[in-house]
Amino acid sequence: MDDSTGQYESSSKERLKAMLVGKELEQIPAPAAVVDRAVVRRNCSQMLAACDALGVSFRPHIKTHKTIEVTRLQVGDNAQNVNIIVSTVMEAEYVMPYLRDCQKQGKTVNVLYGIPLPPSQAQRLGKIGSELGPGSISVMIDNSDQLSILQAFKEVAGFSANIFIKIDAGYGRAGLDPNSGKLKALLEVVLPITKAEGFGHLSGFYSHAGHSYGVASGDEAMGHLSSEIENLIIAASLADKLLGGSHEPNESKAKYVLSVGATPSATSIQHLVHANRTLPAAWEAQTDRLRQCIVHAKGCGNLEIHAGVYPFLDNQQLATQASLSSSTTTTPIAQHGISFPDIALTILAEVASLYMHRNPPEALIAAGSLALGREACKSYGGWGVVSDWSTSSATTRHPCTVPTNRSGWEVARISQEHGILQRVSDDAPELKVGSKLRVWPNHACVAGASFDFYVIVDSDSPSTNQVVDVWTRCRGW
Asked: I need a labelling partner for 157 at 20 to 30 A (CA). Which of 140, 176, 285, 379 fits?
């Protein structure tokens, strides 16, 4: 074991790189969060290309990775409008160097705080706004009591925040049903106050189809995205009507931003634009509906897609089969749904003990809920899937340098620092104490949360198991 591991917690990025870059994965301590840079690049490029092809805007969420490096890949080099979403003020503070660089390049920057704004966060968010300048901060509201918070923000920032009203498109987590009297009542308060007193500017409406995680195909995911768009068109037309604009149902003349998506619903647009993709006949109704919704939304305002976990993906996303594969191991490329090679994040874990006398046989890894997360996946009953990646000393099999498929072992039970592997296939390889394994997590957002940095490999490079970089991430709120 490397004798410098105790220095990780207080190490700077450059010190971490000096300790890790150039080493093979089997040489570094576990658990570790390993990210394949090549996969992240492909996943991000595919999302941007789909939005460009459809002529819609894209606003990436950075809550999954919390890094500058992935934020840069999500936004893309050619974007002139750098619009992102954060779930914590800490995330916005952490990527400030990147945002300032974008402004120096003449690009516009806007950070959307991704939940209805809590009062305690107004001053810190205002401080970020004061550094980035007018128009740089957007907030969400879904309750008239939140309007006073906007004044507190303005006092620190020196300008009013852009406002998105959160719409509940069926998930039931936050927001208002656009067909309810609640939205109308909120708009009747928001519109005159923001106009007369300058508390903020109503930029648009925002929804999150979290329930799209329950889908099992691309056409189901497209159905959720269509529903989101339809709900936001209703909300925008209501706001326009209250302002004295169009009185036609589901029409808006104010050109609001309509921001929709979750990774399953957002990535489903990839099916609409891939030139070599032949869609199943059974999908025709949903694809036609989505195309019509996109056209309608563009007539009402600026349609904006948002998503967060898609650069990394995970077992939950594989279970949805909502998007196309970006992996070069899929033949032909992007003709099939996502598979294990499309998952960029794996957790490097070490076998601590063996219990081959149990039925079925089991093994212990020194990685539990703090390393893997504790979120279920609908496609199986475990807490992580052990990949077929291994070193020559890890199993009785020949080494597999890039994780591509199941090994036949799964994480069956977990506690804080213990993970119990269970053999689920008769041809699963024999494990050894001290061997290193790479585990695909159920939910990448949660699995990465306990790590201060990602160990970076690149499957497009000749040495696929060699550490090529370290990406530090922020933690906290």
From this structure: 176
